[in-house]
Design brief:
The complex is a heterodimer of chains A (about 270) and B (about 400). Chain A contains nine helices and eleven strands. Chain A has about 270 residues and is of the alpha+beta class. A four-stranded mixed β-sheet of chain A has the order 9-1-11-10, covered by helices on one side. In chain A, strands 3-2-4 form a three-stranded antiparallel β-sheet, with helices on one face. Chain A has a two-stranded antiparallel sheet with strand order 5-6. The radius of gyration of chain B is 23 Å and the shape is globular. Classes of the chains: A alpha+beta (about 270), B mainly alpha (about 400). Chains A and B meet through β3, α5, α6 and β7 of A and α1, α5 and α8 of B.
């Protein structure tokens, strides 16, 4: 009653019209954050021309991993920690290597002591292992990334060249992305208290170099490259092998492609 | 860095099977258990209050204002655990400035603000406006000015104005019910929409959250009513209490049915994750899920309330049964939140192993802080009761 008096409404229809107008304006205000939202930023292509002339719109990055070539030496894990200043503790990894041992009775045991950083000791037991192999893991840089979907402030985002990055200045450390990642590829950095993950060594690839793990792999089990360009080693890798991705049922559309992946790997 | 090493290193030995190396640290701890528990109480208490206004359940009138104030007290505290668990609480305003529209969590700020400002505060204001004016006319000193301020200096107590107040309360309550559903349903959605986690990922999650919220809200108001009334040396209205217990019973039946449906559905579908989840439920979660949540928090209270109703027990015995049942229900719902939040993080997303949650005592995510956060709404409620007495006689004095 008071409010109406203050607003000094004289007749019914004017009152109603003003009310509808104000109501619509208020409702429209809800859309403002969406217009200026943080996810808008990556959509503008011009913003992706880096200072040194790197044009992100010309690239689409991915990685291939050949399970048969991995010897579990852990050089990739060490190189990644060195290159990206990942805490040297057994709880934080941007990439790690798992060892699978499949026994004759069908039992599967998986291990990744210190993420494979110190490589693997030979298994000296009476286990009748019929198959054993190593699987390097990292962020899958999904084309349909659940982590990006859930981030409340848009601190984690997909670049136009297909890499999933975290803006640590923006990240509030809510850890929803860590929960949403089906691959366990994320962690909370104990010092910065923000989400961390593999960036495909974005600081290197934008300068024409390959990621540190790829550079240091002695058997070339990891192949890094373009997905859009026909002549790239990655496209060739995808053509020459039977390719699988991790957890395809979740429709995350990973851009890390595994050759000779065993059904036991998840 | 030192303390994280000390905290995480012993956990390495607790792991059974294989978990991804980044999964040693359990990310959502006790504070995040509190959050759905608190918002559940808010939504539940509000829906109870709505029964009086919208569905005209006259017996519950003595608890109407009490439920509203309870909802407000808990709503004020609800964001604190969220804020406390952030890595960078000082940046939390970014959720409001640049929300990611696809994130369920980003919606929190808006749903919360809507519920606090547009529903709860407005309803309380309209409901108390006349009383605030009358009180401030009779009082002297500080209280006079507090009540004047709370009434926003309005002074119109004409019949027309009072009628407008009543109409507004009704309209707001009608808007409030879906809003309360939204407030807690969306908390369920935050968990239910995580496809990476099969323990959470369920379309039933928001609905189960909602009904368990109503259960906990009714049980809380019942407890507050039973504690506060004797403290004010007033008789407990058995009609009201019986009605509260009946509603508690009905909603618990719905809640239990939904949870059972969820359980049967999971077992029947028997997806990839069923092995690790059954290992979890029969092992690390057995006490908190099977014993506390289902047996102590659900079946025993259901059975005892039913017995109190069927055997027409004397009032004194009924009161005792309701009181104990409501406490058990609170324990049960708290475990429900625990089992969802903590339980959902105890198994690896590789579905090959289990990890452990170790609660700390001190520190932001420790037991002490959580305990303080749980006590705070009760302190706030005490102050609200002093400022805005919800009792009927306080209202009658002025008319």
């Amino acid at each position: 009653m008071n409010i109406l008096k203050i607003l000094n409404f004289t007749n019914q229809s004017q009152k109603r019209r003003s009310f509808v107008k104000m109501f619509l304006l208020s409702v429209a205000a809800i859309a403002i954050p969406g217009r200026s939202g943080s996810q808008e930023k990556p959509k503008k292509k011009s913003g992706w021309l880096l200072a040194d002339g790197y044009d992100a719109t010309e690239h689409l990055w991915g990685m291939g991993v050949n399970i048969n070539d991995c010897i579990g030496c852990g050089r990739c894990v060490a190189a990644c920690k060195e290159e990206n200043n990942v805490p040297r503790l057994p709880f934080f990894f941007r990439t790690w290597v798992e060892r699978y041992e499949i026994e004759a009775n069908g039992r599967v045991s998986v291990s990744s002591p210190n993420g494979g950083y110190d490589s693997f000791k030979p298994e000296l037991s009476d286990k009748q292992t019929i198959r054993s192999f190593f699987v390097p893991k990292l962020c899958n840089h999904c084309d349909n990334p659940p982590c990006v979907q859930v981030c409340p402030v848009g601190a984690t985002f997909k670049t136009v060249d297909g890499v999933i990055l975290v803006d640590s200045d923006y990240c509030i450390g809510c850890r929803y992305c860590i929960q949403a990642c089906p691959y366990g590829a994320r962690f909370l950095h104990p010092v910065t208290r923000t989400a961390e993950k593999c960036t495909f060594c974005y600081h290197r690839i934008t300068k024409g170099m390959s990621p540190a793990c790829v550079e240091n792999c002695p058997t070339q089990a990891r192949i890094f490259g373009e997905l859009k360009k026909g002549a790239s080693p990655l496209v060739r890798f995808k053509r020459m092998h039977n390719i699988n991705v991790l957890k395809p049922n979740l429709n995350t559309e990973p851009k890390v492609y595994y050759a000779n992946l065993d059904m036991e790997v998840s | 860095m030192e303390d994280i090493v000390q905290h995480l290193t012993p956990l390495l030995k607790e792991v059974s099977g294989y978990i991804f190396p980044n999964e040693i640290e359990l990310h959502w701890g006790l504070l995040i258990v509190l959050y759905p528990y608190l918002t559940g109480l808010v939504a539940g208490a509000f829906i109870l209050a709505s029964l009086v206004k919208v569905f005209n359940v006259k017996e519950l009138q003595p608890t109407y204002r009490m439920s509203l104030l309870t909802a407000l007290a808990f709503l004020i505290v609800a964001p604190l655990p969220l804020l406390g668990h952030l890595g960078h609480p000082e940046k939390s305003y970014e959720i409001f400035l640049t929300p990611n529209t696809s994130s369920a969590m980003a919606m929190f700020g808006f749903v919360y603000a809507w519920y606090l400002m547009a529903v709860l505060l407005l309803e309380i204001w309209f409901d108390y406006r006349k009383d605030l004016i009358m009180w401030s006319r009779k009082e002297k000193g500080l209280m006079k000015w507090i009540h004047k301020l709370l009434s926003l200096f309005s002074s119109d107590v004409s019949e027309k104005a009072i009628r407008f107040d009543k109409k507004s309360v009704r309209v707001i309550t009608i808007i409030g019910i879906p809003s309360a559903f939204l407030l807690h349903g969306y908390v369920g959605f935050i968990f239910g929409s995580v496809k990476a986690n099969p323990f959470w990922s369920s379309v039933l999650m928001p609905i189960v959250f909602l009904f368990s919220a109503i259960v906990s809200g009714i049980a809380l108001v019942l407890l507050i009513y039973m504690i506060v009334t004797p403290m004010r040396r007033k008789p407990i209205d058995m009609l009201c209490l019986n009605k509260l217990a009946s509603y508690l019973f009905y909603v618990m039946i719905i809640d239990f049915s939904l949870e059972t449906l969820d359980f049967i559905h999971r077992v029947y579908e028997s997806e990839e994750s069923i092995h690790i989840i059954s290992e979890l439920v029969s092992g690390k979660l057995f006490v908190s899920l099977v014993v506390i949540q289902v047996l102590i928090g659900m079946l025993i209270p259901l059975g005892s309330i039913a017995a109190a109703k069927i055997f027409k027990l004397p009032d004194e015995l009924k009161k005792l049964i309701y009181f104990v049942a409501a406490i058990l229900v609170q324990m049960g719902i708290f475990s429900t939140r625990w089992n969802v939040v903590i339980g959902g993080q105890l198994f690896s997303k590789s579905f090959r192993g289990l990890t452990t949650y170790k609660m700390t005592f001190f520190g932001l995510e420790g037991f002490l802080v959580s305990f303080i956060i749980l006590i705070m709404p009760i302190v706030i409620l005490y102050i609200l009761f002093k400022l805005l007495p919800p009792w009927d006689e306080a209202r009658q004095q002025v008319t």
